[in-house]
Amino acid sequence: MRSFLAALAVILGLLLSAAAVPAIWVDRNIVQENGFVALAAPLGKDPDFQKRLATAAVNSIDAGGTVPPQVAGLVRPVLESAATSLTGLPEYPAAWEETLRKSHRLNFTDPASLPPEADSSTSLTLDVAPLVALAAKQVSRQVGVPLEAPGQTLVNIGQANQRQLVEQVTAYSPLGYSLAVGAGVAFLLALVAARRRWKVLAGIGVGALVVAGLWALVSRWAADLVIATASGNEMADLFKREFVAASAAGFASWTLATAIAGGVLVAAGVLIRVVGGPARRR
């Protein structure tokens, strides 16, 4: 009976862990602002994405009506030049990071508090206002015409119903911490109930290796599925592709850590069996 209870507790702990770890990773790296910025910051170094994002930011200055008509002909060539030189400015990394922070707050916040132009009921949005402000500052410095950058410049990068998915992730990912506590309790009960604790350690280790393998397969499948879904927006698809790749690489490190922990537990269980066996016979 004790062996059956121990085995049941190990299985329960593994199931809870299989759900807890991905949820915790999502909460720490996507739902929480600092984690999202750290994960997405390298995207700003992608040349193609930089070019498209800078062009969108600079074009918003012209489209926003901030350029006085009497100097529009003079400013237009400067705007076109700014689109190619913006990413080389020393202030660009800080502007990109602030863009990520503003965009995260825009997408991971109460929809009722968002502006109507964000179309929060359906799509995901980038707020490139910091990049627009940087471009406006550069143009003003070159032509001597003060340009006032808007406080918010929105670029839709999502598809229909993706906003609802974000809301669900925000609501459920924090539950991963509770699931992790439950898994820890289950493993502890398994160790207490078991007659042969080395079997529990080895069983948890083997289970961890299996779970890590499943995470790797599911992660690859999910990444391929997301990337295969085109939105019709080149910049949106580029952002999605790079962000999914960064997410997969980030979670892969957690998968590897779990596999290593599983291997250590298996080795520990076998070692206890080898060392403890002769001692019990004596």
Structure description:
- This protein has helices spanning 2-31, 33-40, 47-63, 72-85, 92-107, 129-143, 162-172, 175-193, 197-228, 234-281; strands at residues 125-127, 154-156.
- The chain has 282 residues and is mainly alpha-helical.
- It has 2 domains: 2-30 and 167-271, no CATH class; 45-160, no CATH class.
- It has a two-stranded antiparallel ribbon.
- Helix 1 packs antiparallel against helix 8 (175-193), helix 4 (72-85) crosses helix 6 and helix 5 (92-107) packs antiparallel against helix 6.
- The longest helix is centred in the last third of the chain and has 48 residues, at 234-281.
- It is elongated and about 80 Å long.
Short recap of the structure:
By secondary structure, the chain is mainly α.
